[in-house]
Amino acid sequence: MRTLRSGLAALATAVVATTATLVSVATPAAAAACAYAAEPLALPAGVTSAFVTATDGRTAFAGPGTSANGRQQFVVWRDGVPEGLPPVGGSLNLTGINAQGDLIGSWSAAPGVSTPEWYHAGVRQPSGVFGNESPSLDGINAAGDIVGRISRNGVQKVAVWRAGHQAEPPVVLSTPDGFFPTTPRIGDDGSVAIFGLIGADAHAFVWAPDGTRRTLATPLGGEITRVSSVRGTRIIGSALGFGAVEWDLSGALASTPGTETTEGLAVTSAGTVLMSYRKPGEQTTVPVVATPGATWQYLPAPAGSSRAVAGTITDAGVVGGSYVDTATGKTVPVRWKCAS
Q1: How far is 38 from 261, CA to CA, in rounded Å?
Q2: May I ask which residue range the UniProt record assigns to the signal sequence (predicted)?
Q3: 321 burial class (0-12, 13-18, 19+ CB within 10 angstroms)?
Q4: Which domains does the chain have, with CATH numbers?
């Protein structure tokens, strides 16, 4: 089975047939609309490190945390106040949270072996509810619909478990023969977007709530490499030669808010885009927020760290991420808020 890393390496020679007209390209010289300030997030009692991987789009962030004895647990920050869920053995990965407080992800007792992780109504649910087709849970929307992947007869499929019907067989979305999906994303209306490979060729799709599949348009001369987020009527991802790319739910190219050394990470309903940006001649990246109209706002590294990594953004423009404290070596969760 191909990995995303090996698949992306093959993209250097891949040709994607679907093309579209370039809409707009931002420049990093644009003046900032406000100044973002970094604010480390507090940790629950007993937790020594954590990082932010998801938001409900409103005021909550979530991610995995680790205690001094190495046990892991999910941590939720609501308006900056932390809450630690009961710790478990093994390794945790958190992939989504919604405004109802549902959390999804995976739990692994041993490398290479994982089971679904789902907290509903504050209670950890049995992993077997999602069936026995090696399910992975990759995204959740406000209603509680969960998108993920299953292995059916040795073939990876994109699956949706509808809210209130998680114990029933999932809806399996139609994909072309030979399509190997990466991580699917789901919007609040039930639309699903994904990037994947057929052999060495890149393909990206969006499914309407009724299951209708459309192809995401490729910028002329580019190659789609990632679909990262769906929020409102917007999809954000990346393409070789263009960096961050935005589409609407019809699959049409809406904008290219970055440069070729950016990567689209997340988007708000209003069109503010969270990106990583690698400056020319440098190997490391910095987080950047691009507002509609191509205004760039750099997110400063928190005190005590040379750099930070951003992961997600709320609809109000608050960014969640993490950094490594140079004094302790611990991973510290952080949020950036517009300070002016």
Answers
A1: 23
A2: 1-37
A3: buried
A4: 4-338 (2.120.10.30)
